[in-house]
Task: inverse folding
């Protein structure tokens, strides 16, 4: 938990909540989604996701488009500006973590590397 907190502290001050950042990340990974589908993936109610999308759209981080398969629906996609924000966010955190890992002894880095498959298995459960 402390490492996660330290990584969060490295985020640029872009004024977004963790929910808003997670929504951008989901759109980046999954591509365009309907608001209901996005809400389900993020485990929030559609009205809450609509408010999140409103904020992100006002900041130019996402775009709404008509759904080609159902004209009553809209899909949301991450904008180039949203992709750049995520890229910068990740870059700063990765730089901080790389610097911390470089401070470790080689045997300590080997122990961490050996633990990755176990941590991945725990994360998937």
Result:
């Amino acid at each position: 938990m402390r490492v996660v907190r330290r990584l969060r502290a490295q985020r640029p001050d872009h004024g977004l909540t963790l929910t808003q950042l997670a929504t951008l990340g989901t759109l980046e990974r999954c591509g365009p989604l309907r608001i209901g589908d996005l809400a389900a993936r993020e485990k929030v109610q559609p009205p809450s996701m609509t408010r999140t999308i409103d904020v992100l759209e006002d900041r130019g981080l996402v775009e709404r488009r008509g759904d080609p398969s159902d004209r009553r629906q809209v899909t949301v996609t991450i904008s180039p500006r949203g992709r750049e924000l995520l890229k910068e966010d990740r870059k700063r955190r990765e730089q901080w973590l790389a610097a911390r890992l470089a401070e470790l002894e080689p045997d300590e880095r080997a122990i961490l590397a050996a633990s990755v498959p176990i941590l991945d298995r725990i994360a998937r459960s």
Observations:
- Residues 80-102 form the longest helix (23 residues).
- Helices lie at 2-9, 18-30, 35-42, 46-58, 80-102, 106-124.
- The chain has a mean pLDDT of 93.
